Amino acid sequence: xxxxxxxxxxxxxxxxxxxxxxxxxxxxxxxxxxxxxxxxxxxxxxxxxxxxxxxxxxxxxxxxxxxxxxxxxxxxxxxxxxxxxxxxxxxxxxxxxxxxxxxxxxxxxxxxxxxxxxxxxxxxxxxxxxxxxxxxxxxxxxxxxxxxxxxxxxxxxxxxxxxxxxxxxxxxxxxxxxxxxxxxxxxxxxxxxxxxxxxxxxxxxxxxx
Amino acid sequence: xxxxxxxxxxxxxxxxxxxxxxxxxxxxxxxxxxxxxxxxxxxxxxxxxxxxxxxxxxxxxxxxxxxxxxxxxxxxxxxxxxxxxxxxxxxxxxxxxxxxxxxxxxxxxxxxxxxxxxxxxxxxxxxxxxxxxxxxxxxxxxxxxxxxxxxxxxxxxxxxxxxxxxxxxxxxxxxxxxxxxxxxxxxxxxxxxxxxxxxxxxxxxxxxx
DNA sequence: TAATCTCGTGAACGGCGGTTCACGAGAAGG
DNA sequence: CCTTCTCGTGAACCGCCGTTCACGAGATTA
Lengths: 209, 209
What we know:
The structure is a homodimer of 209-residue chains.
Chain A: H1 7-28, H2 31-38, H3 42-48, H4 52-73, H5 81-98, H6 100-110, H7 116-142, H8 152-171, H9 173-183, H10 190-205
Helix pairs in contact in A: 1-2, 1-4, 1-6, 4-6, 4-7, 5-8, 5-10, 6-8, 7-8, 8-9
The first copy, chain A, binds a DNA duplex (30 and 30 nucleotides) through α3.
């Protein structure tokens, strides 16, 4: 052969890996299975990645890239705060449905003890969204649109908490069942759920005019 | 010997197990380590529990009992809705600090594929809090204290999401770091955090008077 | 006291999964 | 066409972990 793995093959490997990790979690995912699902031998996996941990990090990085791209859209465009919240909520749900593995992998590193590398990656992406939200909340504050007495740090923490649980609720099996349990017939009505969340977040964060 | 393991020993085993599972997660926790930390042999663990899964379920059940006991306090006492929210927030944080392993084990089953038994346990406790919160929100609605247009199902989902993230933020290592990242100097000020969350939840859920 | 029973012990087993490495297929170079 | 080099292959290795079971220490019983 002397053919290095093609570009597409390398991408495929990362995709197969992400799927495996997202489905089974880090520990239960097996390098052998990943290799065979990607149609390569285990050996080559270790030619490209030092070990399971490094491979996981690569999959994670690949996944998180999509997420952080999305993040930049959040502050773009000139809309009212209320509209922006609604846009973000919709984007979060839409993103969830399009990239379930990203959220699942994110959730995965949330538990378990991971390598420095994985830690660092997660912290980096977390740092991006933290800063994005805090900047946004600070801007709201300065425009006197944030609720009285609420400080931007707490507001962005609160806001991201809500988004994170929303994403988990749409992707992680356990949280999905929980969502059904809580929402009942609202489970299938994304539109109405967004409307409800909107009203609550609005009331929580924005000054009454 | 012919001494059955003493009552205290049995309790100690569950505690050691819970700690181990909470710290390392189900997969990385080792039956041998648990046995040796509890000062018994592996064999006896298998005399009392059929396998690792069953032992995990027992630890989980032991932990969740504490949680569901706490739950009943939530609706007790005659206080205003605002006061009740504040009480629950404080209780959540206090509980987190007192029983870190409970939250961590709960978080653990949230990921990974678990046995029917573990699933069932989690669903049961989830069911209790879901019902508790929904009943409470329904009561608020009927008393005309819930915000206009908000339906109890969505409100209780939202509320529990906030509480859950709060608990994770105080116990699960990853979320704890994230909390520090978001809150900055507010990280050490529980009182102020509760005050801030209070204001936001109040605004999100309760009718303005 | 001798026989029997109970129950904790921990070495041993089996299997699995991450990781390695000797191999060989085939491209490149002469 | 032969040599050399590249790089994917997958059997083999190793360590770990859940699980088992033959054993024996001590309690019970007769």
